[in-house]
Amino acid sequence: MKIKALKRLICGLLVLLTCFSLFSFKSTPPAKKDTLINSGFKLKTIIVDAGHGGKPSGTPGHFSHGASGSFSSERNVTLAIALKLQNAIEKDLAGVKVVLTRSTEDDVAWERRADIANENKGNLFISIHCNSLSNKYIHERIGTKHHKPVYKTIEVPDHSGKGVLLLVYGFHRSKEEENAIKHNQIEEDSELDTAVDPNDPETAILINEYKRKFRQQSINLANFINAEFVGDGRPSEGIREQGVYVLCHSAMPSVLVETGYINNPDDEAYLNSEKGQDEIVASIVRALKNYKDGVEQVSK
């Protein structure tokens, strides 16, 4: 890789990083400055990932159908929201294209989802999911024996979860993200015909800058989305780190949105309603507009 090309890339990354100088999980988005100067970057492609799916007919192997409620499944809810989100983004965000990782009920392997994001040169990756809690165990008194109470342990559903949760990738999988960046960012920018050497100091600098930028922008986007949900009155568990495969294998800022607890009767009804899905989509689109304004501008 030529030195001039390296310098141009690093300078460009550092300019974008000035938009996200605060590195935290605080749920309030940074305030906008009055004076903005165009940075030249444009948000062009957003990957929308409808979590889980049904096992394609005749396909061997394991497919996760996701969580289930009393009358609905995560795979169907996430697809409905993803399709509406695609339409809303392309309608309300001028010049932005949406690529879906799946547009049918059939599932798509985790590896393929990340590949779709990288092959389409996505600027953002948003994965739509529904949350759920495992059953809990309680001790129930069933009588007495020798004047002492007798209990048995029973398994019952846990409906206590409610509201949204935002996930960004955990640091313990940062090596996987570095590899994705090397193959899908560094090699694309290389002016050499030979493979990029990950041990080369110039490559290491670029990988670290990309990783730092993507990390900060992922948290920034998660903050924007969470703020919109909270502003709409949705309960929120905030933002957490988690080692989600599709997040750390997508070489771009990535956020997983747990839209609600499908095994909570109230949340399930909301997630399956037109009103609920439309509100979820509207919250995400408003957050994307705020994010887009930020990454396409640099404060003075």
Description:
- The chain starts with a helix and ends with a strand.
- Residues 1-7, 14-24, 30-38 and 190-194 have low confidence and may be disordered.
- With 300 residues, it is an alpha/beta fold.
- It has one domain: Aminopeptidase.
- Helix 1 (3-17) runs parallel beside helix 5 (201-231), helix 2 (74-92) packs across helix 8 and helix 7 (265-272) packs across helix 8 (274-295).
- Strands 3-2-4-9-7-8 form a six-stranded mixed β-sheet, sandwiched between helices. Strands 1-10 form a two-stranded antiparallel ribbon. Strands 5-6 form a two-stranded antiparallel ribbon.
- It is built from eight helices and ten strands.
Q: DSSP strand (E) fraction?
A: 15-25%
Beta strand count: 10
Architecture in CATH?
3-Layer(aba) Sandwich
* Largest sheet entry: 6 strands, mixed
CATH homolog superfamily? Zn-dependent exopeptidases
Strand and helix order: HEEHEHEEEEHHEHEHHE
Domain module count: 1
Oligomer: single chain
What would you call the structural class? alpha/beta
CATH topology: Aminopeptidase
> Which shape, going by the Cα principal axes?
globular
Indicate the low-confidence ranges by residue numbers: 1-7, 14-24, 30-38, 190-194
Termini Cα gap? 31 Å
Number of helices: 8
Instruction: Provide mean pLDDT, rounded.
Output: 81
The helical percent reads 40-55%
The main sheet orders its strands as: 3-2-4-9-7-8
